[in-house]
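Sequence in, structure out.
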Amino acid sequence: MSLVLDPAAQDLLFREARTANTFTDEPVTEEQVQAIYDLVKYGPTAFNQTPLRITLVRSAEARERLVQHMAEGNRAKTATAPLVAILSADNEFHEELPALFPAFPQAKDVLFAERPAREGSAALNAALQAAYFIVGVRAAGLAAGPMTGFDFEGVRKEFLDDDHTPLMVVNIGKPGPDAWYPRSPRLAYDDVVTTV
């Protein structure tokens, strides 16, 4: 069975999309970010918990503070990307559950009363949302440069609080010159899928 999604959209979102390492100086607008969020907010999470939180780094002062926490190889591209987003997991997501999951409003207290349960669930579900976010950036015709090469504790202290766990930093913008490394190999279907 073939895919329903148009082949050009398949290429935009997956086949031709790669992590961008350089960007043009064309700004990423608030309207573009809002459109991305309005699309990807529908991605599924357990109990509709939606624990992903997005911190947009726009000011020069905030950018300088962030670059100090990036791994050496990620500093230049983070310093020059039109927009940088810090994606984090909100470990207090359960406070929103009565509104977000009205079918089982007591889930807040029954399933997520303990912090370790929340942290594990927030990490998994926010990571799912981070993947949706990257695909949404691509759907907006922009390139994403997701990175985990940074001082997690330093970024948390600098930009977040004890209730938020950083997951990744994503550079966002129109791809610049020599933005892409060559496509790396992928595993074959038979190497990944097992039927039992």
